[in-house]
Write a structure and sequence with these properties.
- The protein is an alpha/beta fold and 576 residues long.
- It has three domains: 196 residues, 3-Layer(aba) Sandwich (Pyruvate-ferredoxin Oxidoreductase, domain 3); 174 residues, Thiamin diphosphate (ThDP)-binding fold, Pyr/PP domains (Rossmann fold, 3-Layer(aba) Sandwich); 107 residues, Rossmann fold, CATH 3.40.50.920.
- The protein is built from 21 helices and 20 strands.
- The protein has an eight-stranded mixed β-sheet.
- Helix 20 links the parallel strand 19 and strand 20.
- Helix 1 runs parallel beside helix 5 and helix 4 packs across helix 5.
- The longest helix is centred in the first third of the chain and has 23 residues.
Length: 576
């Protein structure tokens, strides 16, 4: 008789080949659970192929908010013969595997709990093998005691466009999953002791991915021109904006290559658009000349860079944090910039919205560093709280004597656009005078460089301070950024030590001045990043001249888990 030990926080894995509909089931599963009153978190890992291979979705269902990936598997449903070997390192004696006999027994020496369910044979009775994943969905939901009516309503919403027969077959398949679990319980083959508490408030929550949050943030920021070339993990942002372009008067252009993308976007910005680019590290590499042009012409632009393991094509569908140095130093010559890196769905929305206001205010490129883990993860949130957000505009009407690059006390020149007023709005990639006329005058060159430094000092006054979590009387200070936020936060809850603090950066450049206070106070400083060289630690060390004592680094292309962080911190803090 098989038990699930974690009765208030269950980790469920669906694993199979691309093309088996795992993503469809994942969406139905999370929405059904949310409407039932459960807190949910889901993330996926997948191979770079349209069909075949092996992909998995990790889903956590809990009685409290959950936001982080864990290695632990409580229930595993393998949908092909590669699933169990792929996940063998995560399978423990407490793991319950439900599936085809040949799939669950493919590794004979693997110690875990197994229950045979012939999904493929049962799906043939419903209408074909394509329905095997829906039967698995019914199995999971029955084990979690979810009402059938909630799932049936969602199936109808999801599949009605495909016709009533498809809707009916999917409902039959899901019902078959419920029947299977009921038979297994009555025959004493599994013991259903999952007692996750429901919260009625959750039913009205939203479920958003990082991709959707960034897209919504762009819309809230007043984006009216977006350009992209498809490149994982950022492709979904462009397609999301394209799907909603008519609703929000946005021009969305899928261009022929990344060089075209950056130049079109700068052209739109010159004309007055609030311009946006989504790409990944490899695509951004082609854009760096255009970024340098933005620095010289002082054209506002927001660029999302989805990080993935390199060099070159690398691992296009995996996750990493390897592009700080690329983004920080992109472009010939020096010019100021702003770099954000959201740690949550809420951050992804708010920082993207803020990026549009800041680029318009300071006329510098604003970057948003994301990764596959962040953009492909989602959980339920109550609200994005957008009521206080404003679209800030800084365009002036020009006069006949307008100087686009006027030298001012703070380094910000008044920005005009062509056709709005009587002035000429120049833009040139060469060194130029106040009007934009090409010059090689060394005194003017010095003044333009000093102008950029003035601008950086002004930007620093708008820098977001890092978030501190923990007891102010800390001995150990963990420093991290981006999508590591909830992973580290949950790990520290498990460690439960009053002498550990966590300093989290959602803005990684410029660095806020109060960082020094925390670094000086800490006896032991530990950086956690998902790259091989500790890029953010190096940036911090360069800016503050204070070194990290330890670095916890992962660079396999697979996300850090809560358990890994706990284990590595114990080695440093507790000596094992």
């Amino acid at each position: 008789m098989d038990n699930i030990n974690n009765i208030d926080d269950i980790s469920i894995i669906l694993c199979g080949a691309a093309g088996q509909g795992i993503q469809t089931v994942e969406g139905l599963l999370t929405r059904t659970l949310k409407r039932s009153g459960y807190y949910v978190f889901a993330t996926r890992e997948y191979m770079s192929r349209v069909r075949g291979g092996v992909n998995s979705t990790t889903l956590r269902v809990s009685s409290k908010p959950v936001r982080a990936y864990v290695d632990r598997i409580d229930i595993l449903i393998p949908l092909n013969e590669e699933a169990v070997p792929h996940l063998k390192e995560r399978i423990k004696p407490s793991t319950l595997i439900l599936g085809e006999k040949e799939y669950i027994n493919i590794l004979p020496g693997l110690e875990c709990k197994k229950v045979e369910i012939s999904f493929l044979e049962l799906s043939s009775e419903v209408g074909g093998k394509i329905y095997a994943n829906m039967i698995a969905l019914g199995v999971i939901l029955c084990m979690l005691k979810v009402e059938k009516s909630i799932l049936r309503n969602l199936i109808n919403e999801n599949f009605k466009i495909k016709g009533q027969q498809i809707v009916d077959n999917n409902i039959k398949a899901a019902d078959k999953g419920y029947e299977i679990v009921e038979d297994l319980i009555s025959s004493n083959k599994i013991n259903q002791k999952i007692e996750i508490q429901k919260n009625p408030v959750v039913k009205d929550d939203y479920i958003l991915t990082g991709t959707e949050a960034i897209g919504l943030g762009a819309i809230a920021g007043g984006c009216n021109f977006a350009c992209f070339y498809p490149m994982a993990p950022s492709t979904g942002i462009g397609t999301f904006l394209a799907q909603h372009a008519l609703d929000f008067d946005i021009i969305v252009d899928q261009s022929e290559d990344e060089i075209s993308v950056i130049n079109k976007t700068l052209g739109a910005s010159y004309a007055g658009a609030r311009s946006f680019v989504s790409t990944s590290g490899g695509g951004f590499s082609l854009m760096t000349e255009g970024v340098s042009l933005a620095g010289m012409t002082e054209l506002p632009i927001v660029i999302v860079v989805g990080q993935r393991p390199g060099p070159a094509t690398g691992m296009p569908t995996r996750t990493c944090q390897e592009d700080i140095e690329l983004v920080l130093h992109a472009g010939a010559g020096w010019f100021p910039r702003i770099i954000f890196s959201p740690g949550s769905i809420e951050d992804a929305f708010k920082l993207t919205q803020k990026a549009f206001n800041l680029t318009q205010k300071f006329h510098v490129p604003v970057f948003i560093l994301t990764d596959q883990y962040l953009v492909d993860s989602y959980y339920n949130i109550h609200s994005l709280n957008h009521d206080s957000l404003e679209i800030e505009k800084h365009i002036i009407k020009t006069d006949i004597d307008y100087e686009r690059y006027r030298f001012t006390e703070n380094g910000i020149s008044p920005r005009g656009i062509p056709g709005y007023g009587d002035g000429l709005v120049d833009a040139d990639s060469h060194s130029h005078d106040e009007y934009g006329v090409i010059t090689e005058d060394p005194n003017l060159r010095n003044k333009t460089v000093e102008k950029r430094f003035k601008k950086l000092e002004l930007i620093k006054k708008d820098t977001i301070p890092p978030e501190f979590i923990g007891n102010e009387d800390f001995k150990y200070l963990i420093v991290s950024w981006g999508s590591n936020y909830y992973l580290i936060k949950e790990a520290l809850e498990i460690l439960d030590r009053s002498d550990v603090g966590f300093l989290f950066f959602k803005q990684i450049y410029p660095i806020h001045e109060n960082v020094l206070n925390y670094l000086i106070k800490a006896e032991i400083k530990i950086s956690i990043e998902q790259n091989p060289t500790g890029q953010f630690a190096k940036l911090l060390e360069n800016e503050t001249h204070i070194n990290m004592n330890y670095r916890i680094l992962k660079y396999s292309g697979y996300v850090l888990s809560v358990e890994e962080i706990v284990s590595k911190l114990k080695i440093i803090i507790e000596g094992g």
